[in-house]
Each structure stands twice: as structure tokens, then as C-alpha cells.
Amino acid sequence: MQLAFIKLLLFFTIILTPQTLAARDYNISDYGALQGTNSTRAIQKAVDECFAAGGGRVVIPAGTFITSSIILKSNVEVYLEPGSVLKGSDKIEDYRANNERHGIFFAEDEYNIAITGRGTIDANGSGFYDFTKNHTWDEFDRSVIRQRENYMKEGTFFTDGPVKRISMPGMTLVFFHCTKIVLKDITIKDTPVWATRFGYCEDVLIEGITIRNNILVPNSDGIHCTASRNIRISDCDIVAGDDAIVMTGFPKIENVPGYSMKEQEEHTWGNKSRFAEHMNVTNCQLKSTSAGIRIGYGQHPIRRCSFSNIIIYDSHRGIGIFAHDTTDIEDLTFDNIIIETRLYNGQWWGNGEPIHLSCISRFEGYKPGKIKNVMFSNITATGEQGIIIYGLKESPAENITISNLRLYLRKGKETMFYGGNFDLRPASLKKMQIFEHDIPGFYAQHVKNLSINGFELSWDPDLPDFFTNAIEINNFDAVQINNLNGGYAPNSKDRNDIRLSDGKGLRILNSVSRGKDPVVTKNKVVN
Questions:
Q1: d(CA 345, CA 147)
Q2: Rounded CA gap, 200 and 302, in Å?
Q3: pLDDT tens digits along 231-258
Q4: What pLDDT is stored for residue 202 in this prediction?
């Protein structure tokens, strides 16, 4: 792991900046773009001429220009002047280029592309949704959920969304098999689906951008990287109607097990390795109706990612790591992060937990991968659910280190309607998607080499009795708990601070509950 992070550090000492392009500017007004009218052809002509001349800047001047799908080319920088707005067409039939449906910008197998400036890309996405209806689908079994038939009761309108999709363009900014991409300073707003997708890309710099999506709109992710590598994200402010910053390992086709290197080999540019790796995120502020930070799922293994100096607020889930495919996720660090989560009503993934790790297959008959070598340090969290590490016997979570964690668990307005369950979506078995489970402050199962060093836990006084122990760990090999300051929930019927079962290699040091040694229950535990 140490060698991996030395390599990662060496990569990020390289300053990723746009290649110096030809000096000439290509102002879209000179190609017939007019404010308030669909200027797609004019913008595309400016891009094509810029590319043909060897590169330069396509300038979007101040004003509002309607657009649909633009195909980007190598060595082209799109520069949005202050006060400029590229507004997406409200006509679904406009979003076609090269006989495929796209969003606003699309590039494939290109090199050295940049979108910069203080202007705005307004994707006009809300117009493709019906805000009087909810977006729902059949994915859980109410018979195993605490609230039974009252969970997301049929006929109810869920005020937190998601709202119903009518039709939609493609993802707003899409880059497939591209190398050296820069997004800087721009604002992206109201996307109908993912704001950005970087698929099989390499050398990506995203700096100082703002994303403002409608949080009622499903699948409107912020920055989503799939099977890409060498990514640096900094100083971004993201509000997303789904995950805010994502690293997944799936190829173009998401829901088929396994992958082939053939597609990567057929392209000149982009990620040629089998890994999704080397993502560094720092100094960002995130809000999400799903996860602020999501790692996994996906068929390519994921590794060597670092997250620091981040605020996640008013989100359904804080940090989520999901080994739900056959490949492993490993070598991740999270440092100096503030997290605030709450339960949203409606069919969003997540259940108010600040940190979630799970190894469970989303494909029936396939063994899930493992989560290995993950470090959390200096985490301050407020949530409406505890922390979860959910491994399986055949796919444990290994080498998980947590240092200096402060957690406050509170009761929210949706606690009685949605709380007291674990949410493991996506899972192959319907009964494992969402199911009833008591809520400790920290829960782990099937873990190997788990270290908790410095855990301060406090609870709302009026939490329901399904909030239980400070720590519960089942099926473990080598667990150390050092400097726990906190005890069982105030209304718990199980008056144990720490509950442990089916494990070996336990050490509890320097821990207190209510000023005394913690009450510890062990069942089939060998020290």
C-alpha cells in the first residue's frame, strides 16, 4: 500500500494544465450564433474549424445561446466568457449527433480538450420531468423492512423526489477514451441526468467548477468517472440529485458482469489499464440525495484514491464504498472530512449513514470482490444512521483503519418512517436490498484487521429503541478498539456498549462509557 501511494504522489506532482494551444480565437458569433436562438450549427462549425487549424479557443461570448449536441475535437478549448450561458434546447429531438443521442458536449477518442471560463452551461433538464409524479421502481421487499407495508406506502407523493422522467437527452458533458481533459471555473446547472461522465479517460483536471442540479431529479450525478485514471478534482461546489463525486469501474455497458479490454485497445487515447485508479479529490463542498462520495460499483477493479478537506452536507449518505461486482476496491484514504446526513423520503439509495462499506453481489451467482486497505482519519459526522461495514464470509472487508472519528446520531423527521433498516442496494437478492436491522453507532461484520482508534459517540436523547450499541462487530479476525468515548443509545433495550460475536484477536484499550469502563458482551470470541 505504501508503494502505491508513493506512485500516486509522484503522479500528482505533475501539474495538469491545458496544453498551450494555437493563439487564435473562434468566436461563435462570427459563425452565425445568435442570442436566444438555437446556435448548435454555428458552435459546431467553430469547433470544427478550430480543430482543422490545429487547435485554439472557441469563445462563447456574454449572452444566452440555445444549443443541443456538440461534438468536441482534439486541441480545442471551449471558453465561456463571464455572463455567457449555453442553454440546452427543450426539444428532445434536437439531441442527436452522428446518429446517436447525446447531451450538450460529447467527445470520443480525442486528446487535449478543455472547457473553461466563468460562464454557465444550463442543461435545462427540469423540463424533461413531471414534478407532480414520483419516479419509482420495484426493487425491495416490504415484508423484510421494519415499517412493512407503511414503507414508501403506495399512493403517497414523496416530497424529496425523485420525480418522474418523461424523456431526456444524454449526459450533459461526456468524454469517452480521451486523454488530457480540463474543466475549470465553469458552472453546470439543471442537468437531466449525469452532469459529467469520464469513461475510460486518463489525465483529467477538474478545478473550481460549480454544479447546481435539481435535487428532485433522479440520476443527476455531479462528477462521475467510470474506469478512468489519473484524475484530480479540487475546489468544486456540487449539489446533485444523486451521487456528487463518483469513481466506478464499469465500462459503457453497466449491467453486464465482467469486461473485456477490447474496447480500450480499439481506441488511440484514454485509459489503457484495467484499473479505475488515481483519483485525488480535495477542498470540495458536496450535497447529494444519495452519496456525497461514491466508490464502486463496476467491473474494473478500483484502487489508489485519496479524499481530503471535504464538506458533505444535507446528504442521504456521506461516503459509500461498494464492492458489488467481482473485482476488489483497495488503497483508499479519507482525511479531514465533515459529514452531515439525513434520511430523505422517496426511492433514493442510502439511509442516512455517514460512512457505508459493503461487499455484496449485484449479480446472482457471482462472488463479490473485497474492500481492502482503507483509512479514515479526522472525520466529524452528524447523521440519522450509524456507520456500516458489511462484509460477507467469502468477501470480507480487510485492513480498515479509523482514527479520530466523532459521530453524533440524531432523530430526524423521517426516522420513524425510514429508519431502523440497512440499505445495501444494489444487491442481487431482493430481500437484501433494504431490510430491518437495529442501528448501532458503528456496525461491522466479516471484517479482518479492523482498527478503531479514537471514537467519540453521542446520541439524541429521544431516539427510538432500535438505536442500540455504541459498537457491534460480528464475524471478525483481529479487531482493536482504542479510545472509545461513548456508550449505548439512551433508549436501547440492549444495555451493552460493545457487542461482539464470532471472532478472534480482540483488543479493547483506554475506553470509557459514561465515565466507566464500557459494558462489553462477547459471544464466541477468542482474544
A1: 13
A2: 13
A3: 999 999 999 999 999 999 988 777 788 8
A4: 98
Q: Looking at the predicted structure, is the pLDDT value of residue 18 above 80? A: no
Q: Which domain holds residue 69?
A: 2-437
Q: What is the pLDDT of residues 75-112, one digit of tens each?
A: 999 999 999 999 999 999 999 888 889 999 999 999 99
Residues written for the chain: 527
For 295-330, the pLDDT digits (tens) are 998 999 999 999 999 999 999 999 999 999 999 999
Nearest alpha-carbon partner for 225 in 207, 263, 251, 190: 251
Residue 479 lies in a domain: no
Measured CA to CA in angstroms, residue 453 lies from 73, 172, 304, 378 at distances of 50, 43, 23, 11
Q: Are the beta carbons of 26 and 48 closer than 8 angstroms?
A: no
**This prediction's pTM:** 0.94
Would residue 494 count as lying in a domain? no
CATH number of the domain to which 299 belongs: 2.160.20.10
* CB distance 509 to 480 below 8 Å: yes
The per-residue b/e assignment along 72-104, b for 16 or more CB within 10 angstroms, e otherwise, is bbbbbbbbbeeebbbbbbeebebbebeeeebbb
CA triple 372-226-245, angle to 5 deg: 75
Q: State yes or no: pLDDT of 481 exceeds 90.
A: yes
Whole-number mean pLDDT of the chain?
94
For residue 12, give the H/E element and its range.
helix 2-12
Residue 524 lies in a domain: no
The pairing of beta strand 355-359 with beta strand 317-323: parallel
Residue 11 is predicted with a pLDDT of 45
Work out the burial of residue 14: count CB atoms within 10 Å of its CB; fewer than 13 is exposed, 13-18 middle, 19 or more buried.
Answer: exposed
Give yes or no for a contact between 301 and 249, defined as CB atoms under 8 angstroms apart: yes
- Count of CB atoms situated within 10 Å of the CB of 391: 27
Give the total number of structural domains in the chain: 1
Mean pLDDT across the stretch 505-516? 97
- Residue 51 — φ and ψ, nearest 5°? -65, -45
Instruction: Assess if residue 288 is contained within a domain.
Output: yes
All residues at 6 or more sequence positions from 402 whose CB lies less than 8 Å from its CB, including other chains: 375, 376, 377, 379, 451, 452, 453, 455
Let me know: does 240 contact 264? Beta carbons within 8 Å.
no
Contacts of 110 (CB under 8 A, 6+ apart): 72, 73, 74, 175, 178, 269
Q: What are the respective helix, strand and coil percentages of the chain, to the nearest 5?
A: 10, 50, 45
Q: Which residues of 448-473 are buried (b: 16+ CB within 10 A; e: fewer)?
A: bbbbbbbbebbbbeebeebbbbbbbb
CA distance 230 to 380: 28
